[in-house]
Write a structure and sequence with these properties.
This is DNA-3-methyladenine glycosylase I. InterPro entries: Adenine_glyco (IPR005019), DNA-3mA_glycosylase (IPR052891), DNA_glycosylase (IPR011257). GO terms for molecular function: DNA-3-methyladenine glycosylase activity; metal ion binding. Keywords: Metal-binding, Zinc. The protein has one domain: Endonuclease III, domain 1 (Orthogonal Bundle), CATH 1.10.340.30. With 189 residues, it is mainly alpha-helical. The protein contains 9 helices and 2 strands; from the N terminus they run H-H-H-H-H-H-H-E-H-H-E. It starts with 16 loop residues before the first helix and ends in an 11-residue tail after the last strand. It has a two-stranded parallel sheet with strand order 1-2. Helix 2 packs across helix 3 and helix 2 runs antiparallel to helix 6.
Length: 189
């Protein structure tokens, strides 16, 4: 009996189990949990200029170093920045780590004011995922007009390291955008 091979987006067809699992169980699926949304945004910030594989391999170390992405705890981690910068298990980039701490304060402030990060983000796309039907990975843009608008809104609110490319990648990760290739088993038909 022959094992059926699932057709995935071309970027996830490598033999890397971590990458395939991320693709199959997380990427492009609508996320509505504030802590997980904060984690995905933070990981996308860390990924800028690096491979996603690198970030996935360091994900558990990030979770340990950043209090499992509990934004209420992360917002107070500025004094721990020197220790974070000495932690070889994570990406040691001061600008990115400072941005994550800053962004945690904003997400915590949103929650304290009675608005969830989930609602804050999803209202910008009318609470419906943007679904594309790209045929190839090369056709998927690095950003689009919705990411540019969301990036501008986030920056006005004080978020850091949230340019349009980071925001678009975050939107894909959190399922605000579904960019599974048209022949992928997870593509919305």
């Amino acid at each position: 009996m022959q094992k059926t091979q699932l057709k995935r987006c071309s970027w996830a067809e490598s033999a890397d189990h971590l990458l395939q699992s991320y693709h199959d169980h997380e990427w492009g699926r609508p996320c509505h949990n504030d802590q997980h949304l904060f984690e995905l945004l933070s990981l996308e910030i860390m990924q800028a200029g690096l491979s996603w594989q690198t970030i996935l391999k360091k994900r558990s170390a990030f979770r340990q170093a950043l209090a499992d992405f509990d934004f209420y705890q992360v917002q107070s981690m500025e004094p721990q920045l020197p220790q974070l910068l000495n932690n070889s298990a994570i990406v040691r980039n001061q600008a990115k780590l400072s941005a994550i701490i800053n962004n945690a304060r904003i997400v915590a402030d949103l929650n304290r004011s009675g608005q969830t990060f989930n609602n804050y983000l999803w209202q910008m796309i009318d609470y419906q995922p943007i679904i594309h039907h790209y045929q190839t990975a090369a056709a998927v843009p690095a950003t689009d007009t919705s990411a540019i608008q969301i990036s501008q809104t986030l920056k006005k609110a004080g978020f850091k390291f949230t340019g349009p490319v980071v925001v678009y990648s975050f939107m894909q990760a959190a399922g605000l955008v579904n960019d599974h290739q048209a022949d992928c088993f997870l593509a919305v038909k």
